[in-house]
Specification:
Blueprint (H helix, E strand, L loop, with lengths): L13 H6 L4 E4 L1 H4 L14 E4 L7 H13 L3 E7 L6 H13 L4 E5 L13 H6 L8 E6 L14 H16 L4 E8 L2 H13 L6 E6 L4 H10 L6 H8 L12 H13 L5 E7 L4 H13 L1
Parallel strand pairs: 1-2, 1-8, 2-3, 3-4, 4-5, 5-6, 6-7, 7-8
Helix pairs in contact: 3-4, 8-9
Length: 293
């Protein structure tokens, strides 16, 4: 199968607007607390992923999930395997999320170097069977690799894990999607998505997109989150003094993905997943404006 190559898109913005209709967004409990009412920022039914980072309490996670559901959104709590104390705690978390209105969850290893309890990866979480009542499950993808998983910089272990999860979805009734870290360069992401498809990994993909933010903020988060080779896009921008004070916004990156999808109805990237690095209002405003185009 020939890999799709990206060329500069025409000025037609219809593919971009269409591509962003199904976009999801990620929040943390503490940033969500600063938004008085999400209904003022996002359409009803939007998928809102709630990040569970180290130091966030289960109670904060559960309260945020319930609050988002009350406001007409579809909360998706993160469940990081290495932060889960034990199976009993996992069962409590899942039950509380379900009771709070969550119909899906993102299962991932988590950022710790060693597990706090009995789970080390999302495959072990899936094997518990505790997520069987959720309508949809999400798993992590790594278009630029993950050195925590593949220390040599390759993707052998990451691909092995994705194949296992694709097999799990095939042998169960789990509806699964891949959600990725944010990146800044379209063609490597397009190539990665096509490699997955060629390997028989046909789960829909939500590609991480960094929402509008100051360049300094973007660089800080990109380095902190381990963004790979596409970091060079920001580094080139930083060398241009005329752009240092101009906020970064992802229109060029997302437009490339949108045109790739418009050219291939079976293109595996289904939607954008927004990381609001410059604040939730800035990202939701950008989304609304580009959807309207």
């Amino acid at each position: 199968m020939a890999l799709m190559q990206f060329r500069s898109p025409p000025r037609n913005h219809a593919p971009l607007a269409a591509f962003l209709q199904g976009a999801s967004i990620e929040v943390m409990p503490r940033t969500a607390a600063g938004v008085s009412d999400f209904r003022q920022h996002l359409p009803a039914g939007t998928l809102v992923f709630v990040a569970h980072i180290d130091g966030t309490s289960p109670a904060e996670m559960q309260a945020t999930v319930a609050r988002l559901a009350r406001e007409g959104l579809r909360p998706v709590p993160h469940v990081p395997a290495r932060l889960v104390p034990d199976r009993a705690a996992l069962a409590d978390w899942v039950s509380a999320y379900r009771d709070g209105g969550a119909e899906g969850a993102l299962l991932l290893g988590g950022g710790l170097s060693a597990p706090r309890g009995e789970f080390r990866d999302s495959m072990q979480l899936l094997e518990t069977g505790l997520f069987g009542d959720f309508r949809q499950l999400f798993i992590a993808g790594h278009p630029e690799g993950n050195r925590d998983i593949d220390p040599d910089g390759g993707e052998a272990e990451v691909m092995r894990a994705l194949r296992w999860k694709a097999d799990f979805a095939a042998r169960t009734d789990a509806r699964m999607q891949i959600v990725t870290q944010f990146a800044f360069e379209a063609q490597p992401v397009i190539d990665w998505a096509n490699r997955l498809r060629a390997s028989g990994i046909d789960m829909p993909i939500r590609i991480g997109v960094a929402g509008p933010a100051k360049l300094q903020t973007m660089l800080k988060f990109a380095i902190m989150c381990g963004v790979g080779p596409s970091l060079r896009v920001l580094q080139r921008r930083a060398r241009d003094v005329t752009k240092l004070l101009v906020p970064y916004e992802p229109k060029e990156f997302v437009t490339a993905l949108a045109h790739a999808k418009a050219a291939d109805p079976d293109f595996p990237i289904a939607a954008a997943h927004i990381f609001p690095l410059g604040g939730i209002p800035a990202s939701t405003g950008w989304l609304a404006g580009n959807r309207a185009e």
